[in-house]
Amino acid sequence: MHQPIHELTDAYRRGELTPTAVAEAYLARIGALDGRVGAYLTVVREQALATARESEHRWRAGKPLGPLDGVPLALKDVLCTRGVRTTCGSKMLETFVPPYDATVVERLRAAGAVILGKTNMDEFAMGSSTEHSAFHPTRNPWDLARVPGGSSGGSAAAVAGGLAAGAFGSDTGGSIRQPAAFCGVVGMKPTYGRVSRYGLVALASSLDQIGPFAQDVKDAALLLGAVAGHDRRDSTSIAAPVPDYMAELTKGVAGLTLGLPDEYFIDGMDPDVERAVREAIEVLKGLGAQVERVSLPTTRHSLAAYYLILPAEASSNLARYDGVKFGLRVPGRDLVEMESRTRAAGFGAEVKRRIMLGTYALSAGYYDAYYGKAQSVRTLVRREFAAAFARVDLIVAPTTPNVAFKHGEKEDPLSMYLNDIFTIPGNLSGIPGVSVPCGFSVAGLPIGLQVLGRPLDEARVLRAAYAYEQATPWRGRRPDLT
Amino acid sequence: MARAPPGFDVNYDVVIGLEVHAQLLTRSKMFCPCPTTFGAPPNSQTCPVCQGMPGVLPVVNRRAVEFGIRTALAFNCRVNEACRFARKHYYYPDMPKNYQISQYEEPLAEDGVLEIDLEGARRAIGIQRLHLEEDVGKLLHEGTLESAQASLVDFNRAGVALMETVSRPELGSPEEAAAYLKAFRAVLVFLGVCDGNMEEGSLRCDANVSLRPRGTAALGTKVEIKNLNSFRNVQRALEFEVRRQAQALDAGERIVQETRLWEADRGYTRAMRSKEFAHDYRYFPEPDLVPLQIDRRWVEEIRAGLPELPRARRQRFVTQYGLPPYDAEVLTQSRALADYYEATVRELAPASAGAAKASAGAGDRPKVVSNWIMSELLRVLPGDDERAIQSSPVPPRHLAGLLRLIEDATISGKIAKDVFGKMLASGEDASTIVAREGLTQVADEAVLGGIVDSVMAANPRAIEDFKRGKTVAKKSLVGQVMKATGGKANPTLVDRLLEDKLSKM
Amino acid sequence: MIERKDVEHVARLTRLALTEAELELMREQLNSILAHLDTLRAVDTEGVEPTSHAVDIVNVMREDEVEPCLPQEAMLANAPDRSGEFFRVPRIIEE
Fold it and tell me: How far apart are CA A332 and CA B20, in angstroms?
């Protein structure tokens, strides 16, 4: 069941497996197991099988569309899919059926991918545990009493639990990398602007990016390559050509200089995490990489800057949910009452909190002190990374300060926010980053190693992750869900 | 220079600023490729972007920027080197995203001027800024706004490119404000960036009005007036508002800063329920769009392509054609009409060397054309309607043809007016109609002489009266000759013949 | 310090109907979060431009060409309340 995508398509080529058989197998597995995991919100059985059949014709005729043809994938329910409801994990959009596909979805369909369904997430991508979905929590396949991380918890759990061969999520402050670390899979956030945001329901417009979850680094490279590249419908989309990520994958790390940031090893982080990451660094050294210390002093202010920028932009992006044109409507005696009741009923507590915070931060008199200030601090964070990358090729660090925690353990919003301290800076600077499994805690919970690179240097990031992965036993370790 | 509206006390200086929103004549909307044509079925000209669906992103329409630059140059604004878009937040159901993409701290252009002429005096009114934004949808109320239980929304208009121009508060009277708006509109129509149709809402105006004691400098509290949908309403509303404020101030009351609606049917402005929390728009730079750095070469290209603007054209009509200022003003009220005039003049007097055919009636051709257009053409077509003039059933060359027939005395001026009416109805040229209906003027001396003789013979009393000094009697004789010829006699000839014959008696 | 009236004001601006209890809880939580975010004040950002745009791109524009719209039905399909070809909303009381 747990064949990575690149092996799956080899099997298709050799005729050992067929897309329909594989799709059926995944659908059956979802049927049997997802009740316990809760990775999916919507499964599109008929569509998936129809797509699989079409793919099968192509494989038989020896004319596959490419390396994703017939590959079953899951999509975070924050990506618009034509004709398939897209809820963003919220009551507000519980019945919303987009009349259009996100660009990423169009590209995946054009590549022949088989979309199995839409995965669970923290409501409107606000959260780090997928406990804030309006529908149900998702459980970590490694320990069902624990969270899979968030906000793309459903996609991470789907890949970890063998409920999809690969998946896509979105990362605004770590929402791909952190759940990837918690679930023991590969998760990547590309450079801001590398992948089109058209059709990604916006959280924080200047921070959001779409990225893949994969069983291994090679799959991540394939998935990224299929969706990356300029989109004229996204004005923030980068025009630079997309390199062939596969071509550089096996180049190794010899001769590369890796930076180890002082500020990413903090008091209070899980000692298992620190140990695993430090061991990973030794492995990389053993493979020929040079390791240097770097200092990113503004790291400690990143959380605050992020938690001002994100709510401000999110409060703006979520203003459109008012019961007028789509989604939930709660009746009211007049327009204002209808809108206010609709938003009160449609949004959960975390979303409301961030909307209120963001509106306040942007309101008259507070702009300079809050949003303006935070964006200036952000500039400092970007400059520090740029200065570091003048000396090193990549930065390696833990993905998270901890491993998957138990459901209900982090009720206090502030303590939840701390999950993202190592991933947020990457979003603030717009640089690419990957989380790759690097071991387990004493209790058997996955730990992630984060590799960050220069803007548009995904190829080098993936290459380092690949080298590490190939030299270690973590790849292919899967939880036993049965 | 302030002027109080007629009949009111002159204790106050009036300070008015106008904000004009113009829908740009781009084919597609400001941030998406939906069409902008008017009159489509509701919600049939929209897409996920202009409806603000989840996940959508805007992309700037280059032509809208070009039109903005064109307008900015016509008003002598400084086109900023860089500008950006910002989100302006407020809740209203005609605004899909509940924020409008507009421009705030870095608009497209600033610091321009519009010169207006009012009763011979020339004034330069400052233009503070010009920026681009997206329009909102249309709201229909089931009944009146106050009584409706529900409202209906049509988003066809949402996302249409809008250009907002804010004047400095330098207008000193309601009349001046109306003059500013007229001149402003004329420029936009001349540039081809907006059709200037206030009834259809492609040009909208809000005013800010305040009063201050005459001769003082500090600005008074300003009141915003909305819902001004014609030049007349701009003037009426401002007259009312100035009166209202003057009366309040006279009575020692404080003017409340608020927004008032002009109720055209009732003739007053009324306060909208005061917006306690008005105008916290929470502007921040639009993160889904990137800044525009306006290339100076592009600006120069646009500048080179600017058409002759209304004021310049008006002045040229005076100097080049020798027209009185009044005529020049009427003829340049729209680009189409001005083009029509010049085309007719050109057709009438082709520019072949020395070809000024000294035909009897040539006279002052430019003035003849002007008179004809003003009295006959504009009687039936609205001069400020570009489309109507451009699609006139009588094109310039037909009018020129008609005027030529008068010039060479083929028909009389009176007959020509009838012919013109027929040309309008049928679209035919003058010669065709004249030939078909046998309207050619009778100018044969012998024929006319004979008719004059018989009229004189039949009217001995009139001749007697004439001899006794009643010159009016000759007119009646002329009239009878005209009647006998079915109006086709050449009146000058008739007059001369009668004069001759009468003097020989 | 956010006061109760500030919370009410913001809730009104952003169209959120909060209960008494929610308003109070929100006030506490916002104050607590803002206290943490206040640490930003200590950072020296003198002369540092804010990051208004996350990419170093300028002048992305499209040509003024029309593309087909979505059909009317597709656009109205998600309407919570419609009247024929229109979206329908409850009465608007002028504010």
Answer: 35
What is the number of residues in chain B? 505
Farthest-apart Cα atoms in chain B, separation: 98
Q: Which CATH architecture has domain B445-503?
A: Orthogonal Bundle (1.10)
Say whether B490 sits in a helix, a strand or coil: coil
DSSP structural state of residue B171: B
Q: Which residues of C touch B33 (CB under 8 A)?
A: 62, 65-67
CATH 3.90.1300.10 correct for A5-243:
yes
Entry field: residues in chain A = 482
Lateral strand order in the sheet of B86-89? B99-102, B86-89, B284-285
Determine if the peptide bond prior to A151 is cis (ω within 30°). Answer: yes
pLDDT single digits (tens) B382-431: 887 888 999 999 999 999 999 998 888 788 888 899 899 999 999 999 99
Question: What is the domain partition of chain B in residue ranges?
Answer: 13-302, 308-430, 445-503
Torsion sign over Cα B315, B320, B324, B326: negative
* Bridge partners, residue C82, by sequence: C87
As a whole number of Å, the end-to-end CA separation of chain B is 67
Closest-CA residue of chain B to C81: B152
Task: Report domain extents, chain C.
Answer: 1-43
The model's pLDDT over C21-55, given as tens digits with 9 standing for 90+, comes to: 999 999 999 998 888 888 899 999 999 999 988 89
- Complex ipTM value: 0.96
Known catalytic residues of A? 76, 151, 175
Q: Say if residues A339 and A332 touch (Cβ distance below 8 Å).
A: yes
Which residues on A lie below 8 Å from B59 (Cβ)? 232-235
End-to-end CA distance of chain C: 28
Fold classified for C1-43 = Histone, subunit A (1.10.20)
| DSSP per-residue string spanning B368-409 | HHHHHIIIIIHHHS-TT-HHHHHT-SS-HHHHHHHHHHHHTT
CB atoms closer than 10 angstroms to residue B277:
13
